[in-house]
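Its record is retained below.
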Amino acid sequence: MMTMFIVCFFVGLVLTLLITLFGVDSFELHGDAGGTHGHGHSSPSWFNMSSLLAGLTVFGGMGYILNKVGMTSGLLILLFAIAAGIVMAWLFFLLYAKVIYKHDDSMKESDFELSGQLGKLTVPIRGKGMGEMVYVLQGTTRSISVRSENGESLAKGTKVVILNMSKGVATVTEFSEFE
């Protein structure tokens, strides 16, 4: 049993260091609690890699220490080590959920959805040809190639709205404000 505790401790420690150095903490086991998967879900998973590895490391370390200090009951050592691992995993989850995840401003696909985006033509569209529009997204002015929805010509400075995207080119129509 001593070997198991040593292996758990060192595997947990090495993987924790690798995750810390290389930032590979995206592995999460999802129990689908009604949220969506991937970035943008409403709360972090209870089973994130940092929490699991913290629990594994403490489980191994606690089991090893209890063996070394002279505790003789293998079952009691195992129960204390499991309890310590679960408590540490829970504490890491709280740290992850309340501190780290709270400030995670990861980019989400929905933040960059262009359908419905308003902009202004900087290069006119002549018939079925292409033009260019500028728009503001996430506080940054951007430009994109555009073509008109029905092949009509649109003058420079015309306000347009993006209907859809295809192969990096936006299909637009003239934006008319309803009065």
About this structure: The chain has two domains: 2-103, 110-174.
